[in-house]
Amino acid sequence: MQIESASFDQLAEWEKELSSHYERIRQHELNLDITRGKPSTEQLNLSDKLDGILCNDYRAAGGTDTRNYGGLIGLTSARELGADMLQVPTEEVIAAGNSSLTLMYHAVLTGYLFGFAGNTPWRELKAPKFLCPVPGYDRHFSICAQLGIGMVSIPMNDQGPNMDLVEKYIREDNEIIGIWCVPKYSNPSGITYSDETVERLAQLGQIANPGFRIFWDNAYAVHDLGHYVSLASIRAATLENDTVDSVLQFASTSKVSHAGAGVAFVSASSANLQSLQQQMQTMTIGPDKVNQLRHSRFFTEFTTLKEHMRKHANILKPKFDCVLEHLHNGLAEMDLGQWEKPQGGYFVSFNTRKGCAKAVVKLAAEAGVKLTPAGATFPYGKDPEDSNIRIAPSFPPLEELDTAMSVFVLCVKLASVRQKLEQQRKAG
């Protein structure tokens, strides 16, 4: 049934049927969680051979005792791993602790408090702002919110962020000092930036504030579900456009090995790395080199890493298939929502009818299925259309995910029908 063409009586009957089904579901007292993109236990088990892999040999190549202090920029072997993931030279990589989010936070603080490469610190500007492609990653937005950095939403399309708007805002406002990007399998839409989008992003340094930086969060660089999806090199594009200082790239093994005990990487120009190191040497005497050595021996070469990620894909793909099958079977012939079909990453982005997302999340929660809060994928937690919901299939077992998606589809139908009934009542 198409909701727009349904009569009031048809909607009322449909609402009655859906409500009855919903109340039966509530009686089961479910407790299911599809809120965040955490690896499942089965995925984490793939890396359990990290435990004991050093066999009491803590010496890195060159003789460094990894148990001791020092090595601010990380082991060379770990930096080589990061270079393989980001497709950049090893000398342009710092290997750090387990979290790329920590590195991003540190980088934003560096720009805010001290400035990059001798440029004006962002805090000295009247109203520094980041451009934020939406829907996007809530933790990016939290960093800006905590520091009082303004956020300007940029809608995403199937090529990446709307570059006409990006360029327009940057030309009009010299206090735009950054843009968040998840360029491959964007969180949550799953979109991979087109070659043209990467090229236009690389050119922004020619028109932006000299302190402007692209935060290139390549969190899903190796997270293909099936065939490999290529992403144009932002580094190569900046070299061609003489804008190498405008980009900071990030990646980690947090969804590759053990999520809470991985290795994170930042890659940038020598001027940017120098700015980061100046602050790092005050706050740390070096990263966890023992863990970096473990990863270097576990992933002996990039082909080893790619084979490991195929094992992840074998676990994840049935879960993504489950989500997409429920959405297709339950909603494809109805005008109740739209969704992406990602080829990798960790999320499925779903858009309800305008004004329904919060109602869907609330209904699901009351039925025992936890979803990411509506609005979380927008700056300040405010989705102007109240429509986007991020679905995270990775963590629950397939059977639980199957149940959760059945409930989700039911809640989408119920919220949509109730909204339309209310609209028709008000219209008389």
Automatic annotation (TrEMBL):
Q: Which domain of life is it from?
A: Bacteria
Any keyword Protein biosynthesis?
no
* Signal peptide interval: none
What are the entry keywords? Answer: Aminotransferase, Transferase
* GO molecular function annotations of the record: transaminase activity
InterPro entries this protein is in? AspAT_Ic (IPR024551), PyrdxlP-dep_Trfase (IPR015424), PyrdxlP-dep_Trfase_major (IPR015421), PyrdxlP-dep_Trfase_small (IPR015422)
Q: Which named protein is this?
A: Aminotransferase class I/II-fold pyridoxal phosphate-dependent enzyme
Source species: Microbulbifer variabilis
Biological classification of the source: Bacteria, Pseudomonadati, Pseudomonadota, Gammaproteobacteria, Cellvibrionales
